[in-house]
Amino acid sequence: MSTKPRIFCPGGLRPVAVEQLARNDSIVLIGPPPEKASRAEILQLIRENQPIHGLVGYLNPVNDEVLDACGPELKVVSTPSVGFDHISVPSLASRSVRLGHSPSILNHAVAETCVLLVLATLRKWNGMQKALKSGDWSVNHIPLGNDLRHLNIGIIGLGRVGLECAYRLAPFGCVIRYTDIRPVPVATVTGQGSLEYVPGADLLAEKSDMLVVACDLNASTRGMVGERLLRKLRGGKGGWVVNVGRGPVVDQDALVRGLKEGWVQGAGLDVMDPEPLPPNHELLSLENAVLLPHQGTATVETRDSMALMCVENGIKGAHGQLMPAEIDMARYRK
Fold first, then answer.
1. What integer is the mean pLDDT of 167-184?
2. What does the pLDDT read at residue 186?
3. Which of the residues are catalytic?
4. Do both 99 and 142 map to the same domain?
5. Which residues form the D-isomer specific 2-hydroxyacid dehydrogenase catalytic domain (predicted)?
6. Quick check: 281 and 121 in contact, CB under 8 A?
7. Residues 171, 135: one domain?
8. Are residues 98 and 121 in the same domain?
9. Contact 175, 150 (CB under 8 A)
10. Most buried among 104, 143, 183, 318, by the most CB within 10 A?
């Protein structure tokens, strides 16, 4: 048998990345399976091709069932996403399997999506589309939106994505504040200077007309944006929420109530809970909710770059080399 590392690609990669895997003569590539292959079929294909040294691509979830199928020689799991909540990291850590992801590459695309959602939410995009398609363009039939200029925007989570959101929103003339686990040293933001740090999401909500959620999902952020925070926005007059972080950070039931009862004016969501939303979910019927199907990174350039980093992480990890973007597994080991 070849001594080259055996890499299984479950799919989820752009063609340019699959081609790069296929051209690499330092590995043995298995997969990707047919696009409509079931999870059971993918797992069977993995088992039939043991040992697997690298799992490179997108598979949801990656849990003990998948790791068992790969066999005991698995060295690395590499995902094209920046988030890895679909992967059982403690299970990887217990087996000394490394984990690669694709941070930083997608920051610009997600920040652009944030601006899209901010503007679409404020300018009542769904209502505008409804008027457009009805053929009634009379002044009384078209909903009035709100200015972004001078709006108080609070960003929850000033990491790589949150900071890029701030850079893009500041030139519109809005006032930006943020909260995080600690103040973040940041460069000057156009037209505003240094960003104001606010200790805690509650105080940030009190000072904000709109919240932009850009933080990770963890035990402390799950459900953070609930009814209490939402009711504080805009001095209790009904504010807005944009979420480009993770769906469960927002208490979605509370958000739906707020949108229906008026204590939330509008929401722009690229992420929801669950995903995908059931076709009959109430959010889909609300005119004041602008929704995207978790596609904040959906540009050719960004997706190609994410997939190529996934491949580079996977190949180097399978060879036991330094990976460009590796998760520190030490804190996940028991």
1. 94
2. 75
3. 246, 275, 294
4. no
5. 37-325
6. no
7. yes
8. no
9. yes
10. 318
